[in-house]
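Table S2 (continued). Query chain:
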Amino acid sequence: MNGINKTLVVANTITLAIMLFVNYSSSTGLFSSVTVASVSYRYDTLFAPAGYAFAIWGVIFLFCISFVIYQWVLLNNGDRGQYIQRTGWWFVISNIFNTLWIFCWTNNQIGLSVICILGLLISLSVMVVRLRLELDDEPVLTVFFVWWPIVLYLGWMMVATIACIAAWLVSTGWHGGGAGEVLWTMILIGVAALLFVYLVQKRNLREAAGVGIWAFIAIAVKQWNLHQPIAIAAIAASIFVFIVISIHGYRNRDFSLFKKAQKGEWR
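Corresponding output:
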């Protein structure tokens, strides 16, 4: 089993490194003038958040790096929770889909990019289930290095998937049909908010919902002087999700990371 675990950790490390490099090069125009941002601008939608919101990728990437580093620690010190085995090949698959999404997006294959981003979202969702994220009472290191990397990633990808599908619809010439873009965007915000609430109530994924709030506020910032109904809907969604998170966090305060640290439950 240790040999299989080592293969998994090595594969996680290599595919993560490739994914990070491809993301960096596509964002900086290292090899091409076509960047993720330039394509996003071409297919801009009313659901897309303000540019500063994408800084969260830096946080997600750092947590992904910490996730892999911790797997090396577990590999050398004994993986009692079988986190490496339970992660399986799904982190590798998520890295592959992330990389493929970059290539499809920057080559104007928006329809294929939707398939890739759905594959990435499914991969993360499978890891949430297989690792039983936020269902068990785990120590601080597990929460920080196993739970949070996947949960934060999942939260942002839920928003990104909706935005990618919206961009694909724009690329096909669809602009909301009879209802119009503004109403459809407000509906999408409402659906996203309900999905985040579901994650909190059914899976305790408050951190994922917190990423949703980050996205909703960024949508409101972008649309405030352009389409105020969308901005108001985004603010309302962020307030609603924040209230749900706060109530859930208070009810489960005895299992908070702060409480665990106070009790010395580090590993």
